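anyone else get weird line breaks when pasting these?? whatever heres mine. first is seq + tokens for prot A
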Amino acid sequence: MEARRLVRVPRRIWLTLALVVLAMLLVAQNSTVLSPEMGTYTVLNPRTIAVDVYVAPCSWTRVTNVAESPAEIRVKAETLPCPIPGPRTAGLTVRVLSVSLAADLGSRTVEDANGQAVPLR
């Protein structure tokens, strides 16, 4: 009986395959970016507010845009949902996101990205 030789796959092919799989996972994850619901906000100082958002416990959430005008401040937050399967809304938690402002808050209203007013706590 002849001994069979094992065919070795070059490391470059394994590395390329791993990078392709990683890229596919990132593309799939980015297609599921959500805008979480905002609860209330708190004034920390004249140029900083803290916004409460409701998200899944293991999700990654951040402020992605702040648009300021003389009358209002629009805050956009996005979250990458939890990759663990299961109920998504049964166990929402409150996450506090800090928002830095270019000018003092003053009497301006705070709104979410859709224009819905966020109440002061």
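and prot B, same format (seq, then tokens)
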Amino acid sequence: MSAPLVIAIIIFIVWMLMGAMYGFQHKNVFLFWKKQKKDIDIILFYWLAPLIIFLCVRGAIILGEHREAGQRATEVAQQIDQMFKKQEYEKFPALLTMMEAAQTRLNELNIFLVELSLGQSNIDETVRKKLELLESEKLNSDYFNNARSMILQVSQEKTFESVEEIEKSIKKTQDAIDKLQKITTQSKIYSKAQGLLNQGNKNLIELGTFLEREKINKTYYDNVTRSSDLLVASTKSRFLKISELESALAQISKMIFDLNQIIGSNSIFTEMAQTRLTSYVKDESELRQLILQEQEKQKTCSVAPEKCTLPPTFQFSTFKDSKELYLTKTRSSRVGECLCPYDIKASGETCGESSAYYREGGDAPVCYALEPSAR
């Protein structure tokens, strides 16, 4: 209960008590009962005067409350206009809460009394339009801030570990672009959104180009590893003819060419390609020397048959690298069995070359996904 209303009630009670005392003193009137007709004016005075005063005070209080609510709504509407002029979009949430509270308060009051107390009209319509505008701009601001955060995050991702990471960045950028495209042309932040949208589209094009290039590099790398594993498996512990050595040399040279293509493009596969390239260059050099030796031996074979020996075997230096570093394991490591190189001995050491996989004779266990099922 407000202070003016309490005061009015106290005055009303005091007034009634004073009237009662007056009636007792004159013994001819007690506010609502009279002995003489002329006392009717006294009764009316004592009844109507406090009632009129009470109604006036209460009316003033009501008008004051309506005026306060109307002024609050008007102030918030003015703050919204100032916010748009100064582009203080971070104040959207707070102003939206304030405007919603003002709208709720106006709905509880008589809007006619609000306008009467302020001496103006259409306050409710103004507040309603401001509230709609603010709600719309709050949504646009959320779209803008979320999109800006995603685009900034993608821009800071300067290195990628895999094609999948590039695809995730592309999806994130596309999501940001979709949010920016939802901002209407009537929005106050439309021009800023368009600038951010242009940056997002530029990033999307760059990422798309990068992805296509890395897909090509991945194809190169996958082909190299597959060819290498098949070549190693097919030539391991076999006597090779010159034609087989020359074929292996051609394959090694092709793989070196593909790896150089990857390294030259500064790819995410560059480090892995560089590791393989070192082994392949070594294999290529050794193969060339072996072929030359075999060709010289073939020349002297018809003259001195005693110098003819069995064709050579060739152990690729890439064998261990391709199996242990790059191929997908067919299962997890086991302790004590030593079937595969990555199994663990009872002592805690890796089985490595002491595993059944490396033993000569018979079928070795299939330990890697990309190798042939029979070796």
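btw re prot B: Residues 40-86 form the longest helix (47 residues). Confidence is low (pLDDT under 50) at residues 319-323, 371-375.
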